[in-house]
Each structure stands twice: as structure tokens, then as C-alpha cells.
Write a structure and sequence with these properties.
2 copies of one chain form a homodimer.
Chain A (H helix, E strand, L loop, with lengths): L12 H16 L9 H8 L3 H13 L3 E4 L3 E4 L4 E4 L16 E10 L2 H7 L5 E11 L2 E10 L16 H12 L3 E12 L2 H6 L7 E11 L2 E11 L3 E6 L8 H10 L1
Parallel strand pairs in A: 3-10
Antiparallel strand pairs in A: 1-2, 4-5, 5-6, 6-9, 7-8, 8-9
The structure holds a DNA duplex.
Chain lengths: 256, 256
DNA sequence: CAGTGGTCTAGACCACCGT
DNA sequence: CGGTGGTCTAGACCACTGC
């Protein structure tokens, strides 16, 4: 009876470890600081390395840690708030500064799900690949599917593919008057090509933002953007951005 | 030279397994069907159970599988599209049908991050706990932080806590004229209490939606809602919902 | 009770990075 | 090259579910 409520409930070791490490991160480590390597940490806590890794994975998922093979584990900076504009008619994803960089453009048959939204059958569409860079870091990779009918004046003389072509398509797209957008967000895992551009391993958790652009009574384009889930916080603002300082975030985590 | 391009690139076993299983799910299994148990599957593919589990985890993260301890692994239904209303002045999260169910209400000091948004210091606020149910399944758990100043007419006679109190707070809240909302989405892991209500294990991946409600020139309330990332697809619609059939989704996955 | 997924161990080897 | 995280193995035991 007098015992001070000793962890009666069964809590997995890795979960408890996660909590302990989380608190240690708050109090004893600065952003960017390197943690001891996994083998040392595991030994220090008296667990197998796999168990320690399970805890680290949790913390990485929560955006607290950053791990790089061959380098080490560092304390991650707070998540970047990236604006996913709402009801704003922009193709660029941002009026100034941090914008999308066209990387490539090819002509391909869209995946079935996209083709269904575009109401195109098996005809190939322009597929523009773009990268979103914030604070000098790639945070998102996008595939923008544009039916030929949406950019009728596209010069056939321009390069048939590559970044030049990508810019041409975007230029033509800007001419359309946007009537609205539809957007969904879901969790996914990075495909090999996306992972490469986001500097992550295949399968890394990403937030998949699917946007449908409406113009002249139909779906003018569909975008599938994958954001790094570990470093990004998507913001949808009717009025200004939601900003939280890092300290505040940490304290919220402790409270939970 | 003459060899038919035999997997020269190093692809992890679990990643390859994920692909194989994904294709098998598309062709040989129906939604709800139970897969063979992990030990059998691992043996069948000639890998250790841990490796097989790594592949299953990926597929579960992508919403393709559902695993329940003591029961088995089943093929998951397509993700549910849940509307996260944009620029709509609702506290209920839905005009008709699938709505939020008040579960409880207590008076507590808000976590620091929330307190900062509410501009309340250490004063306790009303914390309403709500569950969002869709198709008979709990898809989200929410904590709604309401400063006393936002509901001045709240009867002091009502129960000080519990579902009755929760409904009282919501009723008073409806009286306010909403001026706007701010919203962020990020990846998180379920806390123990949320996990319980969502019928998941602690640490399960969730989409954390933080909403700031503005009224009468200030922040009237802050909501932190955690959605099951495995079963939910958040929709933000300016005009109608984005609907994709299950077949189409599967084919998109195959294409990637 | 038997069978399932969840946790944990103690190793091994590999891919990658910086020096 | 040495050190890091990433992958993989072959076990063991536990917690939970349903019969």
C-alpha cells in the first residue's frame, strides 16, 4: 500500500525509453547537437539496440530527431510551417520567396486515379516535376499532371521535356483563371524517386497532398505533392499563420 | 551483359516484400480478408519474422492492412475521407450525420503551447473531450480548449465535469460569431489516452490537426484533434469532396 | 485453451560518410 | 579506413483475443 505507485501498468520498454529520451532532449540537448551512437545509448539504458532504435524511430516520427546513415543522430530543429494555400489562386504555391522549382517535364499517361480526376482516358498528359524548397532545404516533391487541353497554346517548338519544358507548361498554366481547388491530406510512404529528392530513404513517412485545380468548368490539373512528414507542419490559414515557438512545442509534449 | 538486369541496385528485402505483398493484395485478396499469420508468411517468403513485420508495418502505414493483436491481419478498406471544413463556421465539424460526440469536460490548465495561442496565462480553461465517429468507427479524438471568457454565460449550476458539462460548453460556444479559423496538420504519434479511444496502440501514427477559432477579435478556442493516420484521408474542399474509388487508388499504387 | 500480433534480445553484416 | 545508422536473423516471451 505504501509503495509509491510503481508503474503497475505494463508499458513497453521502448515507449518508456521514448519518454525518457524526449525529456532528456528538452533539458540537456540543443538543436543540432549530436547524440551518442546507438550502440552506446543502448548499453547505457541496458536494452538491446533494436529496442533503442524503436524509441528513436518514434522520436524521429515526431520530428524530434534526425538520423543520417554514416553520420549520426542529431536533435532536429522545430518543424517548418509550410503554407498549403487555401482558396488562393496560385499555381506557384507562394507569392514571394520560397516557391516551387520546376525540375523536369515529361509526357506520360497519368496513373489511373489521376486520369479519373482529369477525365482523360489513356491519353498522355504533361507531367511536371517540381521541388519545394524552404530555408534551403527540399521539403516536398510534386508531380503536377496537366492535360494537353489545359495548355492549348503550348509551343510545340520548345524542348519536349526537361526543365525548360516544365517552365513553359507552368507559364501557360498561369493564364488560366482558377475557379477553385480541392485538397486532401493523407499519410504515405515515399516512393524511391521522391525519397531521393527529399534526401530520405524509401518508405520514409510523408504527407501526401492531392490538389485538384478547377478552371473553365472542369479539372484543369491535378497535383500530388509529398511533404517530408518529419520536418513539415502544413498550415491552412484563413487568416495568418499558426506559429508556435520551439520551446512551447516541447513543453506541450512534456505535458502529454 | 546478357543477364536480364538482375536487381543490380540494392533494394532492402522488406521493401521488395512490401511491393510483392502490395501486388498480392490487389489481385488475390478482398477487403476484410484475413492474411496468413506472420510466422507462416515469413516462412513462405524465406525471411525472418522481423523482416516480414517491417513490410507489414509499411503497408499498415499506407492504410492497406489492419492488424489486431490476438486476432490477425486483415485487408483494410479504403481510407475514409473526413471533411476538415475550410472557412466554414461550424463548431460541430459537420452539419448533418457524422459529427463529434462530446465525451467529457474538465477544467484544467492548458498546455503551454495552447495557452500561448489562447493568450491565457496559468488560469484553467474548459477542456472538452470529443470523439469523431464515421461509419460507426472512431476516427478522431479531440481536446477542445475553451477559455472561461469565451463562454461567460455558462451556468455554474450545471455539472462541473462530464458529458453534460461538455454539451453545455458546446452550446454556449455556438452562440459566438466565428470570424475565422487557422489550421495546421502534422504527423504525430498517439498518446496513451488518445490511442485508447481510437482503438490503437500508443505511438500509432496520427494526423494532428490544430485549429484556432477566432471570434470577437481574439482566439476563442483551440482544438487539437488527432486522426487515425491509417484509416483517414483529410479533405479540405473549396467545392465538393475529392472522391476516389478504391480500385482507382489501388491502381495508382501499382503504377508508382 | 491455442493462436494471434507485440515486444525484446544478442548477435551479424551491409551501405554510407567523413577523415 | 573507422564509425555511423540501416538491414536481417533466429530465437524467446508476453498480451490479447476468441473459442
Amino acid at each position: 500500500m505504501g509503495t509509491t505507485q510503481l508503474e503497475s501498468v505494463q508499458e513497453p520498454k521502448y515507449w518508456h525509453l521514448r519518454t525518457v529520451l524526449s525529456e532528456a532532449l528538452d533539458s540537456d540537448f540543443a538543436v543540432g547537437e549530436i547524440l551518442p551512437n546507438e550502440r552506446d545509448l543502448a548499453a547505457r539504458f541496458g536494452v538491446a539496440r533494436a529496442t533503442l532504435r524503436q524509441a528513436l524511430e518514434q522520436l524521429e516520427l515526431e520530428g524530434r530527431l534526425q538520423r543520417r546513415r554514416g553520420v549520426g543522430t542529431t536533435v532536429a530543429p522545430p518543424r517548418v510551417g509550410v503554407a498549403v494555400s487555401t482558396a488562393q489562386h496560385e499555381w506557384t504555391g507562394g507569392v514571394s520567396g520560397e516557391a516551387w522549382q520546376p525540375v523536369d517535364c515529361v509526357s506520360e499517361v497519368a496513373p489511373t486515379a489521376v486520369a479519373a480526376m482529369l477525365r482523360t482516358g489513356g491519353e498522355p498528359v504533361h507531367v511536371v516535376r517540381r521541388i519545394r524548397v524552404t530555408h534551403g532545404q527540399a521539403v516536398a516533391a510534386e508531380l503536377l499532371y496537366v492535360p494537353a487541353s489545359s495548355v492549348p497554346d503550348l509551343s510545340a517548338i520548345d524542348a519536349p521535356s526537361g526543365p525548360v519544358r516544365a517552365r513553359s507548361v507552368m507559364r501557360e498554366l498561369h493564364r488560366l483563371g482558377l475557379e477553385g481547388q480541392d485538397r486532401t491530406v493523407e499519410l504515405g510512404s515515399a516512393r524511391a524517386d521522391d525519397a531521393k529528392e527529399l534526401d530520405r530513404l524509401p518508405g520514409a513517412p510523408v504527407l501526401v497532398v492531392t490538389t485538384r485545380y478547377f478552371a473553365s468548368g472542369g479539372t484543369a490539373a491535378v497535383s500530388v505533392a509529398t511533404y517530408r512528414a518529419d520536418t513539415c507542419r502544413l498550415t491552412f490559414g484563413d487568416s495568418g499563420a499558426l506559429e508556435i515557438s520551439h520551446d512551447e512545442q516541447q513543453q506541450e509534449r512534456q505535458a502529454s
